[in-house]
Design brief:
Aspartate Aminotransferase, domain 2, Pser_aminoTfrase, single chain, 38% helix, seven-stranded mixed β-sheet, binds 4'-deoxy-4'-aminopyridoxal-5'-phosphate, 2 domains, 12 helices, alpha/beta, 16% strand, EC 2.6.1.52, Aspartate Aminotransferase, domain 1
Length: 360
Amino acid sequence: MGRAHNFNAGPSALPLEVLRRAQAELIDYQGTGMSVMELSHRSETYEAIHRSAQDRLRRLLGVPDNYRVLFLQGGASLQFAMLPMNYLSRDAAAAYVLTGSWSEKAAQEARRFGRVQLDSQAKEDGYKTIPEMLDGEALAGASYVHITSNNTIYGTQWHAFPTTQIPLVADMSSDIMSHEVDVEQFHMIYAGAQKNLGPSGVTVVIVRDEWLQQANQDIPTMLQYGVHAKADSLYNTPPTFAIYLMDLVLEWIEEQGGLTAIASRNAEKSGLIYSVIDEYPDLFDGHAAKSARSHMNVTFRLPSDEQSKEFLAQAKALGFVGVKGHRSVGGCRVSLYNAVPVESAARFAEFMRDYARKSR
Ligand code: PMP
């Protein structure tokens, strides 16, 4: 059976074992005579799936008891709006650390609800770096500070999170569950599922209880974090099948040995590609500064757009999928989320080396 070398940026590769399991259970889930898609979201069978996904997520990430885990819809993009709707007001300010296109979008959305103070250090570096320290001026008087833990488009990643007295919120859409995180550093973490957690359609929000109490309640019901927390993410019909697949993906992560094992595998995969970039710096121009390199998205350019195009055409012909850089920046991007096998990264590194030798 032909499985692609799938380097898509999201939606992206899922573990083959998970797909097989979902296939086996598709038509008759545990003797119910129906698919998970056909179960009532109020049934005991579905509730067990819902709880299992929450419990696994808590165990794997080490989520403390005073945090709630929510399953919402609308993608990370809805979180760009929900966060300021719940925690920003006209007469207040929020700080946004710009580290790439997604943080710019998050900041843009917050402007609709209050004042936004920008930390632009990384932007001034052409989004090649991650700030070593937060910009104090941007933080002054802010209700919260927002960061993007991994910058999917530019290929940079925070390797140590900033410490601050201000509530810290992170968009972890493209690196959640790829390594261990100290959840207590954050008041809120959110992430769309379609990179490391499962298919698109479900968004995970992890939020501190005491912060939930402070959220604005003068907004539409469906946009209040408190409403979803109170109803345990069953206020309305949740994306049941996406949550079921997420539970299977989380079980797979446990079987791999949890986040320590997953993180070292991810470092191995990205290391395979970065080492070719470092061997042939005149041919492969890595975008990220070394200290800010992402283990999830490796981005680079060839000396000319023509050569990038030729390289991409060869990669495609060899069966490597999704290597074209985001349309806003061009070049190449190899996304190496949890479910991408080491073998795929190794094969791609070999292809890069062959290409480099031939183009001497
Ligand atoms: N934040 C980051 C870091 C992302 O990579 C993406 C999607 N690639 C988004 C937000 C937007 O996510 P969604 O499409 O789920 O709204």
